[in-house]
Each structure stands twice: as C-alpha cells, then as structure tokens.
Amino acid sequence: MAxxxxxxxxxxxxxxxxxxxxxxxxxxxxxxxxxxxxxGASMQPSLNxxxxxxxxxxxxxxxxxxxxxxxxxxxxSVLSPKDPQQKIIKRVIGIEGDFIKTLGYKNRYVRVPDxxxxxxxxxxxxxxxxxTFGPVSLGLVHGRASHIIWPPSRWQRIEPSVPPERxxxxxxxGATEDGYDD
Amino acid sequence: xxRGFLVKTISFVGYTVQYGCxxxxxxxxxxxxxxxxxxxxxxxxxxxxxxxxxxxxxNLCRIQKGDIVIAKSxxxxxxxxxxxxxxxxxxxxxxxxxxxxxxxxxxVPRGHVWLEGDNLRNSTDSRxxxxxPYALIRGxxxxxxxxxxxxxxxxxxxxxxNHKLFEFELLPFYVVFFQEFxxxxxxxxx
Lengths: 182, 190
Prior knowledge:
By secondary structure, chain A is α+β, with helices and mostly antiparallel strands. Chain A has 2 helices and 11 strands, in the order H-E-E-E-E-E-E-E-H-E-E-E-E. In chain A, strands 1, 2, 3, 4, 7, 8, 9 and 10 form an 8-stranded antiparallel sheet that branches. Chain A has a 3-stranded antiparallel sheet with strand order 6-5-11, with no helix packed on it. The N and C termini of chain A lie far apart (77 Å). The longest helix of chain B is centred in the first third of the chain and has 28 residues. Chain B is elongated and about 85 Å long. In chain B, the strands form 2 sheets. Chain B has an 8-stranded antiparallel sheet with strand order 8-7-4-3-9-2-1-10. A two-stranded antiparallel sheet of chain B has the order 5-6. Classes of the chains: A alpha+beta, B alpha+beta. At the A-B interface, helix 1 and strand 8 of A face helix 1 and strand 8 of B.
C-alpha cells in the first residue's frame, strides 16, 4: 500500500514538473536565447576557422531581433529561403535602402528593397548567401549571434563589423527611390 | 505576516510565468486567433472577421495548394497578410491578368509559395511582388469565428490591418474559455 502511494506521488510530481519545465524551456528558446552549432566554412575566418574538426557553438540572441532591428555588420541566423527547415548564419552587409555592389549575383548593382536584408558569408565563393538567392525578407531573421560559447578557447563576444570592401555604396532612406530595382 | 505576503507574491509570479509560457506554447505550436481586415479575401473572409489559424500544418510542412494562410508580409515583417496558396514550389503559375492578350507563366522556385487573394481585382499578392519564401508563413486558416450576441464575443478589436491578436489582448477569451480548468486547478493545489 505504501509503495503504490509513493508511485502515485512520484508520478504526480513528474507530471507537474513536466508541465512547468517544458513550456518554460520552449518559451525561453523561442523568445530569449538559442544555442546553435555552426557547420560549414562559409563564415571563415570569423566562425569555424578550423573547419569541421571543432565547430563553433554560438549563442543566438532572439530578444534583440523581436522588433526586427538589425544593423550592418551583425551576424544573424535566418531561415533559408530555399529550405524552410534549415537555418543559415551569415553577416548583414546591407539593410533596406542600401545600394550594394554584388559578387556574382545576376545584377551587378542592387538596391535592397524595403523590409529586406543583404547577407553574405565572410568566405566569399564558398557561401550560399544573397549573392545566390538575392535579398532576404526581414521576417526570416531568426536571431543575432552575440557570443561564441564553445570551444572555451574561443570564448568571445561577436562584434558587428562590415568588411571595408563590402560597405554599401550609397543609402537612400525610405521607399521613394525606385529606379535601380532589379 | 511579511513572509506570508512574500510567499504569496512569489507563488503568484510563478503561476503567471508558468501560464504565460503555456499560453506562448499554445499560440506558437497549436493555433491563434487573428483579426483580418481589408477586402482582398472577399467573399471568403470579409473585413473585421476573426479567424482561427492553426500552426501544426505549417510546422510539419503540410501546407497544400488551396489553403488559406496567414503569412508575414515580405516588405514589413510586423504586418501579416492573409491569402490563399495558389502554387507550391515547382508549380507553374499564370502571372498575366485576365485582360492581357499574351499569357505569361512562371515557375515557383524551391522553398517558395505563390499567394493570391480571392478578390482578384482588389488584392496585392504574389502577382505584384512575386513568390514568398515558405518560412514566412505563420499558419493555416481553418475556422472563422461567427459573431454571437453574447457578452463574451462582442469584444471590440483594435482597428489595425491584419493585426495578430497579441496574447495579452486575448485575456478575456483566455479567461472565459479556460477558467474552469485553470482556476479550479489553483483551488485544488491550495
């Protein structure tokens, strides 16, 4: 009799703990922060400088992108426009209104449309980025990579920086200029 | 006495956090109510209709041609659009209007969908801005809420276009529909 009583109390405690832990964890992962491992060589040398031997693990800040405020030079993770279940991590080179010179895109010059971003990997030529599929919508942004948390030798805060040769040529504010759409 | 008050406050905050997280999981993974505005989906969905959009099909990638979906607008991620899926990836869709002599077609690229409103004359959709990535879709509309003259459902909705009812604005619905479950469970725990 004592054993069945103990089993039932244990089961009740487990169920009530389960219904607390799972929603809270899911909400934290959706709204606050997310941890992800970087695969591939498209962001070398900033991320994954050793290639596949010891991939970097980054902390993605989801709270800072809740209002879709992204700046040039941020490393962001976006949902891939070619595969909705895959996330890709790249650097923001241009925001809406910027006039960009592209590397291998179908048009040589592109004005980034409203509500879109131009993202590129740091390792040009080995990167599946906006030079392949064009500007990405801001609604696809998943999180902003703020820290590298593994391996411990590479603990650092990721600073936003645009490579000097990839700065936008011009920036038109607002949606009035439409002459250079692709 | 102060300690009793502190314990009550902490347990209240704990319950609020727990139920807020459960509400977030329900809205993100099960479904949510959305208020639609604009004439682009008439006569299926008229201005100021409240519809229920479920998230399960979208997360399992089971959106099919002919479904009505709520998606984030490609040009403003804070606005939502409500349209019907007319083409999935790889489909051939007609981009010219009914009055054009020469019909033009295009293929929907991989990972994208083609959206059109039911009210073709008064709808800005993929015919003007092209196919949108599948990942911008939020949910599939499955039910429309009918107005019933009772004190629950005559809640005045704010007048914003395609406005997603944020979780805390849904508090009257939430309290009314789930009060017998949650409030009685609080009483049992005490």
